TrEMBL record:
This is Homoserine O-succinyltransferase. Pathway: Amino-acid biosynthesis; L-methionine biosynthesis via de novo pathway; O-succinyl-L-homoserine from L-homoserine: step 1/1. GO terms for biological process: L-methionine biosynthetic process from homoserine via O-succinyl-L-homoserine and cystathionine. It holds the Pfam family HTS. Belongs to the MetA family. Its main location: cytoplasm. HAMAP family: MetA_acyltransf (MF_00295). CDD domains: GATase1_HTS.
Amino acid sequence: MPVKVPSRLPASRILRGENIFVMSDERAAQQHIRPLKLLILNLMPNKIETETQLLRLLGNTPLQVDVELLRIHNRPSKHTPCDHMDDFYRSFDEVKHNNYDGLIITGAPLGELEFEQVDYWQEIQSIIDWSQTHATSVLFLCWAAHAAFYHLYGIKRQLRDTKISGVFRHQRVHQHVPLLRGFDDEFWVPHSRFAQVPLDWLNAHPELNVLAQSNDAGAYLVVSNNNRNLFVTGHPEYTRTTLLDEYRRDLASGQEPLIPANYFPGDDPTGQPFARWHAHGALLLTNWLNYYVYQQTPFDLSDMSGLMPIE
C-alpha cells in the first residue's frame, strides 16, 4: 500500500526519486475504496491447478479482490470435472456486458500450433478486443502474451526447434517503473514454451516497452505505452514441482525432453528441484494489482474513461 505524505514534504521528492510509491494528500482525498473485480480466463487443461497457482499469488496482496473465472467454450474439459466447470466458471456471453478492474489470460498448451489453427482463435481475438474497453489492465501470460502480440500489434512469434524449459536469470531493463518496484537487479523466472518473439522486434515497436529480459529466454516483461496491457512470457505462478511434472509427463509420452535448465541440483532430475522465483512472482502480481489496477481504475466501473495516471 502507498505511503501518504504531504506533496511538499522533502521526503516525498526523495522517495519518488528512489521509485518508492508515495501518495499526496490531494490524491488520497479523491480515492474511494471498494473490492477489485478481477476476471481470469483460464486456458490451461488442469483448471484447478492453474487457478490455485494464480489465486495463491493474488492472495499475497493486502487488497481485497473479487475473482470470477471465465471459460473459453462450453465443451467438456478432459482434465477438470464438469461439476467444477459448471459451478465456478462463466461463459463470455455472461460477462461481456460487465467491466472489470483487471483481467488475466493464462497460457495454453498450444505452443506448436499456428494461431489460426487453434479451435477457439476467433473467441480469443474477441475477448482480447473486448478487454481493451472493459478492463482497466490486462495481464497476458506465456501463450496468451504471444497471442496478444500477434493480434494487437501484428508481431508474429517464431517456433523453436527445442523447448525453452527451466529457470532463467533475468535483468531489469528499466528501474524506475512501478511494476519493478522492489525488484532485485537480477531475478529468476521459470519458462516453458516452444516459441519466441525476438527481442529486437519488441524493442522496435513504438507501442511497446521491454521492462525485463533474459540472455537465455529473451524478453520477459513487456508493457504497452498506455500501461493497459502487461505481457509476461514466463510462468511466475509455477510451483516448485510444475516443471518436474511437465518433464515427467513428456517422458511418459515417449518424448525426449531436455532436463529443465537451472532447476535440479547438478542437473540431476532425481533430486529435489530448486524454487527461487516465488518471491518475485508474488511481488510481480502485487505490483500489477496495486499500481496498474488499484491505483488506476475508476471507482465507478461503468465509466472506464477516467483512469488515474500511473506514478
